[in-house]
Amino acid sequence: MTITLNHTIVPAVDNEAAARFLAAVLGLEYDGPHPVAKHFAPLRINDELSLDFMTVPDPTGHHLAFDVDPATFDTAVAYLRAHELPHGDGPGDHTNGRVAEQHPLGARGVYFADPSGNLYELISPA
C-alpha cells in the first residue's frame, strides 16, 4: 500500500479565519466547517490532502511547506503583495518582502505566516 497523508490538524486562533486566509493566498475554495465534525474547518489542498484547522486556546504554529506549480506560486506572491501581507525569502526572514530566487529545494520560494503563527512555505520548480 502506498502511504499518503490524508489530513493534518492545524492549530488556529480562529479555525475558519485561518482556513479562509490560506484559501485566499493559494486561490482555493473554502467550503465551510466539516459537516459532521463541526470543530474542524477543512481546506482541501488537493485530491489527497486536507488541512483541518482547529481553534485552540493558545495555538503553537506549525511549518507547512508546499510544492506548487509556477502559476500558483506567482498568483500567491501577487496576492501577498496586493494585500500587503508580510512574506519573505527564508524561515527566519519571512517578513522581508523578498522571494527566494535560489531556494534550496526548488528554483523559487516564499514564506508567510498566518495570524496564528503557522509558517507556510511555497516552493516552485521554476
Overview of the molecule:
The structure is a single chain. The chain has two helices and six strands; from the N terminus they run βαβββαββ. With 126 residues, it is an alpha/beta fold. The strands form two sheets. It has a three-stranded mixed β-sheet, with helices on one face. Strands 4-6-5 form a three-stranded mixed β-sheet, covered by helices on one side. Strand 5 and strand 6 (119-124) form a beta hairpin. It is globular. Residues 4-125 form the VOC domain. This is VOC family protein. InterPro entries: Glyas_Bleomycin-R_OHBP_Dase (IPR029068), Glyas_Fos-R_dOase_dom (IPR004360), VOC_core (IPR037523). It comes from Actinomadura gamaensis.
Quick synopsis:
The protein is of the alpha/beta class and 126 residues long. It contains two helices and six strands.
Characteristics:
126 residues, alpha/beta, Signal recognition particle alu RNA binding heterodimer, srp9/1, 2,3-Dihydroxybiphenyl 1,2-Dioxygenase, domain 1, 2 domains, three-stranded mixed β-sheet, VOC_core
Chain-wise SSE layout:
Blueprint: E1 7-12, H1 15-26, E2 40-44, E3 50-55, E4 63-67, H2 70-82, E5 108-113, E6 119-124
Parallel strand pairs: 1-3, 4-6
Antiparallel strand pairs: 2-3, 5-6
What Rg do the Cα atoms give?
A: 14 Å
CATH superfamily of the largest domain: 2,3-Dihydroxybiphenyl 1,2-Dioxygenase, domain 1
Q: According to CATH, what is the topology of the largest domain?
A: 2,3-Dihydroxybiphenyl 1,2-Dioxygenase, domain 1
CATH architecture title of the largest domain: Roll
